Amino acid sequence: MRRDELVGAGVQLLGGESGPAVTVRAVCREAGLTERYFYESFADRDEFVRAVYDDVCTRAMSALMSATTPREAVERFVALMVDDPVRGRVLLLAPAVEPVLVQSGAEWMPNFIDLLQGKLTQIGDPVRQKMIATSLIGGLTALFTAYLDGRLAATREQFIDYCVDMLLSRVETH
Length: 174
Hints:
Helix content is 77%, strand content 0%. The chain is mainly alpha-helical. Helix 6 packs across helix 7 (101-119) and helix 7 packs across helix 8.
């Protein structure tokens, strides 16, 4: 239970609007716990930051896996990552500024690609499936990052529609 409180505090600090501000003291202050509890759950700050990132990735993967249509997948991902932009910033922006997450981001990316590839059942060639899934994940990552950064002036509905159109048009052309 305390571990979950610490991870929740870490999500808030790692995905903060002004960028990651994760120190052991800050996490404990945010969670209302002492450092003793932190070190009962985590060996050090780096292990903690990876645990926070893994938590957000696991939630994102779970939301995507339970979707049955491309629209549902996009809507669930938007609800998780845009409606709660702190989580979106952890997933998409923190690996660029938090050195300990460079490897974690690289390890999670193939999972998202494989998940999408598994949904591309209309495409018979597995190599083509992988290329399409990889390009779609790259494109969607760039779109979500720009949307979270405020560089896209689209409404929530325009954004969802575009992402769904992108997924469907890529699959329908093959």
